Model the fold of this input.
Amino acid sequence: MSEIAGSAHPSMRGRPLPTFQASAKQALDNTQLRRNLHKATHTIRAKRERVIEEMPDWEELRESGRAIKAQVLRHMDTYLLQLEASVQRAGGQVHWARDAQEANAIIAEIATAHQAREVIKVKSLTTDEIGLNRALAAHGIAAIETDLAELIIQLAGESSSHILVPAIHKNRAEIRELFLRHLNVESLSDEPRDLANAARAHLRQKFLATPVAVSGVNFAVAETGTLCVVESEGNGRMCVTLPKVLISVMGIEKIIPTWQDLEVFLQLLPRSSTAERMNPYTSLWTGVSQGDGPQEFHLILLDNGRTQVLADTVGRQTLNCIRCSACLNICPVYERTGGHAYNSVYPGPIGAILTPQLLGLDQAGSLPYASSLCGACYEVCPVKINIPQVLIYLRGRVVRQKQRSRKWRERANPEALAMRIMARAFASRTRYEQVQHIAQIGQWPVKHGEVIEHLPGELGGWTSMRDLPAVPNQSFREWWRTRQPADEADEEEHL
Amino acid sequence: MFLRALQSKHWKEELMRVALFITCFNDTLFPQAGRATVQLLERLGHIVDFPEEQTCCGQMHFNTGYQREALPLIRRFVHIFGQAEVVVAPSASCVGMVRELYALAAEWFDDQPLLAEVQALAPRVYELSEFLVYRLGLEDVGAYYPHRVTYHPTCHSLRFLHVGDAPLRLLRAVRGIDLVELPGAEECCGFGGTFAIKNADTSLAMLSTKVSSVLETGAEVCTAADNSCLMQIGGALHRQRAGVRTVHLAEILASTAEGSTA
Done:
């Protein structure tokens, strides 16, 4: 394997993402994907429920998680400086990167300084967010994914469709084909063990021969300067211990104040993500130790839109996220469309609120609408992000942006018009009752007996597969009025 | 038959003046749910008021992002119902709007007087089943409904209002009913207000699962605390000519052996 650049995520291209509606329509047609996702999400949902039920203090843990994150967000400046000092004290170097471009440039520079033609990578969403693999390829450096699922999608030239299980959309046979093509193996079955062994043989060489590793960060302890990566396969452990140079990239919100706070998150994260009591590998490192592990350590503190999210008092809670993916697994929308429909590194309910805030609502304005507001995501969130509330809030921002737009078409779309008319009708009893009357009388062209089977325009979305009850001739209030005098008369009689 | 229930103690102790919040949706499209609510509450001995100035709680505007447009409707609602002893609605979704999102709206628009009014009113606003079970302490309301019924817990009743099993407790006490459990009951039906139109394809994909579950139960009737979700489920059942109908919880509870006039 030589120059696999890794696919560019649509969200890295700097122009508006395709709408969720359009992408979802495509995804919904993929019946194999539907089946795979249904099975995967339902399995993990059930498992998660079991390991959370056994925790008597789960609600208190969630509240602690939320409170610690709220504390961090409130005093981000202080904690970042504290973290920088702690890491430097332990022999690490700290870099501040305003955006993806700056972060990528720093990483490329470090790798180039060590004459690296290849770097090995721990599974990391943040490096996907900044499009690191592509940026390194431009410098002639190949980034090699060492997480099995990340390796699979890298070989396939695809992008991740799930935060935790990036290749959730692929089956065994497809993986076997990929490995046969790319990994220099003579023969291979599609048994998971054989597939894993093929990947292992390929990766072992890389671990031992590659001088530079890049990782993300799950938690960064400001007090001690300790970085933490949580994983299942052990290849992350190899990456953070074997190479000479380690570069870790973290979104600034990954900070936690003290070592003791880890206790809360190391309980919340594995149970919420893989539905395990404890994940197999938890790697912790503090700066560099002479003669043990990497001898050069760089920490990159990445903003890339986060301070902008932080400045918004309602949207801010989005940064509580510890990337567990519980909200993806429970979401009835994600279960049906899969991750690619969200056109972002961050899919599912959390993606629907994070992506538009990081990229701007003009880029991803359809995402806050990719939810029926069923509330399941909020219920499972280990750090209590009120996702439905943030979705509603962001919808408000999308609407206001359209209303302020210079483009006439944006301002006067049919939805905005209908909403304005209805708001006016609802603001007065007289007008409201008039509209009821108009509906009762005016429905005759579309009414068929008791139901409406076809509606024009955008409303046709409803009647494409559903009937709509016809508007009854007598509204409730009309019934109420007819009954009142009769009742009063009745009462008089009894007297 | 319901005389015994009528004689029970707490009914006599707490007869209330209930302001009916019909919701624009029920008022216009499902008046039978409103009529049933009135009949039920009156049968239980309460006095029902219907403030005729009421229109819409503003949920559709608020949740679709037209929050500025929803604000006058919120103020209007608080003004109309502010003095009520209790407000009861046959809709978990609209009650959720008043109880959970009104305060949020007041905060977002930084309207402190409105926030204070909302906080005073919100605890007195109930969805019908929670009013009956948690406020009045009732389960047996003297209903008779000899049909095979499955209950769909709507998202807003379950996860916003936390009505728990209140509707099921009421249904279990209905005479003649054959109540069957709905598989995957807690999963969203895909309605979601304007979601059903804006993301019609995804909404339908969710709906098809729900409809299969309903059909799997062999029920004649699918009931819920929200006519909006029932319109979604019932819309597909009707289009498929599936032979299963949707009926609001209030209508089942209002039915008696003597026959429902709802």
Notes: The CA atoms of residues 44 and 221 of chain B lie 25 Å apart. Chain B has 15 helices and eight strands.
